[in-house]
Amino acid sequence: MQTDSYLQLADYRRQVFDNYARVRESRLPPETHWQRFRNDQDHLFKTHPQTALDPQQVAQFSGLRYYPYNPAYRFILPIEPLVDLPDVRINLQVDGPIRLLPIGRISFELSGDVFALTIYWFLGYGGGLFLPFKDLTNAADTFAGGRYILDTIKGADLGREGDHLVIDFNFAYNPSCAYNSRWQCPLPPPENQLPVPIPVGEMRFI
């Protein structure tokens, strides 16, 4: 990439950080700030030179598709620490191996059943929290490879309340590789495959 492209990419990430910061700072009802967040993200996808979409997709773009907001999928959760676990290695064709260290686990209840997901830390310069997951909506209604909740390297962070994480599956979003093949992205490890559908958040891009 040329220098201008790197500067544009830095600006794109800055705007994503700002979009999530507005959510964390909002005192509006969760569904209201979710809708505003969606509008901000759609604007980035449509107008920014570093959008994940190619020019043909931009020309046809009318907004990302989401399930309706459902407050039952918003949680304030403690983190169960995980220690001394081996890191998970994911090989990307261009970037090479990515190492994810399991650092904690969150547990949540849906329809009387309890489920758990592992939170990872990117090993490498700077690091960052990462929470990807798969569920039974994948391929049919959502991206086959899974979705993300947390990726603090890219600014995707709904914040904390005290020492608990805000986990709102209504904000689940597609990795860049869901939009076209020029992107590569780490997909959820097997332990983050949920045996139930999560019918909220971003849907499959079409």
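The above is record 1. Record 2 follows with the same two-line structure.
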Amino acid sequence: MKKIIIVFSVLFSMGCASLPSHYVSLDHHTAESLDAVLKKIETERVVFIGEIHGTTSIHLLQLKIIKYLHQRGRQVAVALEAFPSGKQFIFNRWIERTLDEHDFEGIYKETWSVPYEYYREILMYAREENIPLIAINADNAMIGAVSKYGLHQVSEDFLREIKFTDCSTDAQYKEIIGKTYHAAEFPFLCDGQRLRDSVMAYNIAHAMRGNKATMVVLVGATHAMKIAVPRMLQSHDAVSYTVLMPETVSRIIRRPPDLDIADYIWD
């Protein structure tokens, strides 16, 4: 009964939600319409949309951007934090229609804690339009082990391959992560978070090789910060990108967002 109530609440909130209406350029500190923002990101190679997981208006905006780019004739791929790269075959089977929704939803729920209903329209649109879905997250067990015991839990060869640099090399990143996350049982949490970001950057870069697709990246706001995955992506390939972020990220990072965080914010 509790599960039914939760699903109904999600569906009800989605039915009542609307797209964010106020956008601000952090470069020029000017208000922008959604149409203006869409036109400016149309030619970007990567579009990061930072999300507060399970916020209906954000998922509607993600879908709007994906549809806009696709309908404008852009080749589009969607990279999601929701699945680790080891489950890429699940996304492939979903797009190829060799996995029905019931089974796909079951795997989704075993993999990602945000209710399926929030992402359903995005996932269905990708399937209908044959838009590739890219699983970019790291393995949670690996991140947990590093966060608790340190970087010696992973091989130096792996760290070199993903071009990882630890938190001690980036004071700004370390400061923001320190303000954002607090867990005494995870003394190496910053390096764990940075490792996850590095893995996602590596997986995005790998997915972009050999094609000209615009990569729309759906990840949590702290991963989408320009000092996080976007900057790490540049170590693999110097691509053009834009970061869009909800203004409420300020509550997470405990300071107003600036150009080190995003290009556009909305409320």
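Residues 1-13 have pLDDT under 50 and may be disordered.
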